[in-house]
Each structure stands twice: as C-alpha cells, then as structure tokens.
Amino acid sequence: MSVAVAKIGTVVINVSDVEVEKAFWSALLGTGIRNEFPGFCWFEPQHPGGVMLALQASPEPGGLSGRVHLDAQVDDVAEARTAVEALGGTFVEEHEAAGFRWAIMADPEGNRFCIASGH
C-alpha cells in the first residue's frame, strides 16, 4: 500500500442558490454551519472525523466541473499538485478567495477535484 497524497475532506455540491440549498441540507443532515463566505458554505461533519458537505455557488451547476466533486485535504498544495501529476492527473486551474487557496485538478479521465490545505 502506498502513502496517501490526500485525504477526502469534503463532498462539494455546485448549486445555483446557496441560501436555499443551505436551509435544505442543514435540516436534512441535522448539522450546523462550520464556515461560510459569499458563495461557499461548509457544514459540520455528522460525526468526529467525518467527511464534510459543502455548497459552492456556480453559474452552471452541472457544467464542465460537474454537479458534485471532491475536495481533498493536503499538507501543501504545490507538493500535492506535483504528486497528482506524477500519478497521471492534470492541473486545471488555481483559485484563492478570502485567504483560502485551492487548485482544481483532474484525474486521468478528466473527473475534476480540488486539493486544498484545510478550511
């Protein structure tokens, strides 16, 4: 077994209306909000160590990046990017918002996911 490059931290749903979806998912999951800023909302995990659910505003929720994607937690985004590329993945683009930096990557078949060092 190899050493993990990343740990799945969040399942992200791209949505048109974060506020409507936030009310729905909060009630469904019975969890509070862990963190949010305009266009993004992370819910508390349902149990310690559990994966979080997040909502991300998107003008085309089912577009090129898909309706749902994974956010993987890494210690260092640049190192993880190099490791993903060495495994056959590709770099798509990098973003920063409210002091939070992440990179969008794609697996060998083009499925997109994000790598970030915590939120």
How would the blueprint of this fold be written?
Blueprint: E1 7-15, H1 18-29, E2 33-37, E3 40-43, E4 52-57, E5 68-73, H2 77-86, E6 90-97, E7 100-106, E8 112-116
Parallel strand pairs: 1-4, 5-8
Antiparallel strand pairs: 1-5, 2-3, 3-4, 6-7, 7-8
> What is the CATH topology?
2,3-Dihydroxybiphenyl 1,2-Dioxygenase, domain 1
- CATH superfamily placement: 2,3-Dihydroxybiphenyl 1,2-Dioxygenase, domain 1
- Work out the helix count: 2
Low-confidence stretches: none
Strand arrangement, major sheet: 2-3-4-1-5-8-7-6
The largest sheet, given as strand count, sense and whether it forms a barrel, is: 8 strands, mixed
Number of strands: 8
Structural class: alpha+beta
List keywords for this structure.
about 120 residues, alpha+beta, 2,3-Dihydroxybiphenyl 1,2-Dioxygenase, domain 1, eight-stranded mixed β-sheet, about 20% helix
